[in-house]
Amino acid sequence: MDFDIKDKSLAEAGAHRISWAARDMPVLRKIAEDFAREKPLKGIRMSACLHVTTETANLMKALKAGGADVYLCASNPLSTQDDVAASLVVNDGIPVFAIKGEDNDTYYRHIRAVLDIKPHVTMDDGADLVSTLHSHYPEWVKEMIGGTEETTTGVIRLKSMAQKGVLGFPVVAVNDSQTKHLFDNRYGTGQSTLDGIMRATNRLFAGSTVVVAGYGWCGRGIARRAQGMGARVIVTEIDPIKALEAVMDGYSVAPMKEAAKLGDFFITVTGNINVVGAEAFDAMKDGAIVCNSGHFNVELNLPYLESISKERSILRDFVEEFVTRDGRRIMVLGEGRLINLASAEGHPAQVMDMSFANQALGAKYLVQNRKTLEKTVVRLPEAVDQDIAALKLAALGVKIETLTEEQKDYLASWEMGT
Ligand code: NAD
Ligand code: SAH
C-alpha cells in the first residue's frame, strides 16, 4: 500500500485518540453501522482531502465500512495530526498522504497522490480536489459521479464554477445543511479558535479587546465566546444586516482601521482577502496578536507586515513576532493559517459528528442519485438534515414535542381567525 506519513510508530497513540473522539460521534457511529450492513459505497473509489484529525479518521472508517476504497490527504499543511495518519495506515489499511508542516510542493504532491486513483467521488474541504481535477484531469471529470464539499468558502467557489458552466459533476454542499453550519461553524469555530489562541499564547482574554472580522456563522460563535471570557469585542463587517445584528447582540462595530488601534487580539473569519491589510498593520498597538480562522492565510496581508518589519523570530510554537521599523511588536499565530487546527485540534467531536454525518450521507446520496443529479451544487434533502438532528437529540437524551392532528390542522388552516 502506498502512503506518505510522518511516522508509523505513532499509530497506537493515534488509535487511542481516534476512539476517544468516536465516543462523541453517535450519529456517525449509527451511519457506520448501517453502512457496514448495506454497503452503499461498494466498489466506489473515493479521494478525500480533509483535515487529518481524530474526527476525520472516524469518517474514513465509516466510508470504508460502507464499501468505499478511500484515500486521504490533508486540506491544510498545518492541521494534520501525525498519530492519526499513522493509525489509519497501520490499523485500518487506509492510505494517507499527509505530514504536519508539509511544504506547499508536498501538499500538492499529496493531493495528486490521492487523485491518482481516478476517483468516482471526491470529498473536499476548500475545493482543492475539485479544482485540481478540473485543471489537470479534465478527461476524468466526465466519468465521475460527484463530490462533497465541507466548508463555506469551498461552496462559494463551487457555486461560482457552476454559474460559469465549468463544474463537470454534481457536488453536495455539506456546509449548506443546517446541521453543519449552525453547529460546526458557530459552536465549533467559536470554541476551537479561542482554544487555539490560548494554547499558542497562554494569554488571558479577560479585560482584553478582541477584534473579530466577519460576523457570519463563525464570527458569531467567536464573538460570543470571547465576550463570555471577559473580553471587549469589536466586530468589523461589510454587510449592513450582519453589522446591525452585531450591534444588537451588544458588540461595538467599527471599520478595521479604527478597530486596529484598539485590538489586543485580531481574529479573521471572513473567507476574504487582505481583511487585516496595510492600514490595519500600520495602526496596530505594540503587542497585538493576529490570527486567522477563516479560509487561507490571505485574510491577513502578511507580505505587507513582512515589508514593514526589520526583524522576525519564533517566540513559541505557532507564535511568530514581527518587529516593525517603528519598533512595534506584532505577533502572528500559526503562519496565519487556521489557528484552531494549527495549534489546537480543530472542532470537538460533538459537532464534527453532525458535519461528518452529512459527509457520509452526502456520498451515499451522490451514488444513489448518480443518474439524475445535475452538474451543479446541490444540498442534501431537508429530511436528511432533520434526521441527523433527530439522531443527535436522541443520543443526547433530549425529547421534543410532536404535532397533534389538531395542531397540524390549525397550522394548515386559513379559515380560523382571531
Ligand atoms: P459566512 O459567510 O457566514 O460569514 C463571513 C462573513 O464575513 C460575512 O458576514 C461577510 O459579510 C463578512 N465579510 C466578508 N468580507 C469582509 C471584510 N472585508 N471585512 C469584514 N467582514 C467581511 O461564513 P462562515 O460560515 O462564518 O465562514 C467564514 C470562513 O471561515 C470561511 O472561509 C469558511 O470556509 C471558514 N470556516 C472555518 C472553520 C474553521 O474550522 N476554522 C469552520 C467553518 C468555516
Ligand atoms: N481547507 C481550508 C478551508 C477551511 S477549513 C483551510 O484549511 O485553510 C474549515 C473546515 O474545517 C470547517 O468547515 C470544519 O468543518 C473543518 N474542521 C474543523 N474542525 C475539524 C476537525 N476536528 N476535523 C476535521 N475537520 C474539521
Note the main attributes of this structure.
418 residues; alpha/beta; Rossmann fold; 2 domains; 8-stranded mixed sheet; 7-stranded parallel sheet; 18 helices; globular; binds S-adenosyl-L-homocysteine
Distance between the termini: 70 Å
Strand numbers in spatial order across the main sheet? 9-8-7-10-11-14-13-12
Q: How many distinct helices?
A: 18
Q: From the 3D coordinates, which CATH architecture of the largest domain would you assign?
A: 3-Layer(aba) Sandwich
Ligand names: nicotinamide-adenine-dinucleotide, S-adenosyl-L-homocysteine
The portion of residues assigned to helices is 40-55%
Report the biggest beta sheet as strand number plus sense, adding barrel if it closes.
8 strands, mixed
Radius of gyration: 22 Å
CATH domain topology of the largest domain: Rossmann fold
In total, the number of strands is 15
Percent strand = 15-25%
Flag low-confidence runs: none
- Give the number of domains: 2
Q: In one word, what is the shape? A: globular
Q: Which CATH class of the largest domain?
A: Alpha Beta
Helix-and-strand structural type = alpha/beta
CATH superfamily of the largest domain: Adenosylhomocysteinase-like
Q: Overall mean pLDDT score?
A: 97
Give a quick summary of the entry.
By secondary structure, the protein is α/β, with parallel strands linked by helices.
Annotate the secondary structure layout:
Elements: H1 11-22, H2 26-38, E1 45-50, H3 54-65, E2 69-74, H4 82-92, E3 96-97, H5 104-115, E4 121-124, H6 128-136, H7 138-141, E5 146-149, H8 152-163, E6 171-173, H9 178-201, E7 209-213, H10 217-228, E8 232-236, H11 240-248, E9 252-253, H12 256-262, E10 265-268, H13 278-283, E11 289-292, H14 302-307, E12 309-316, E13 319-324, E14 329-333, H15 339-342, H16 349-368, E15 377-378, H17 382-396, H18 405-412
Parallel strand pairs: 1-2, 1-4, 2-3, 4-5, 5-6, 6-15, 7-8, 7-10, 8-9, 10-11, 11-14
Antiparallel strand pairs: 12-13, 13-14
The structure holds nicotinamide-adenine-dinucleotide and S-adenosyl-L-homocysteine.
Residues 50-51, 53, 55-56, 75-76, 125-126, 150-151, 184, 188, 295-296, 338, 341, 346-347, 352, 355 line the site of S-adenosyl-L-homocysteine (SAH).
Cofactor: NAD(+)
Organism: Leptospirillum ferrooxidans (strain C2-3)
Function: May play a key role in the regulation of the intracellular concentration of adenosylhomocysteine.
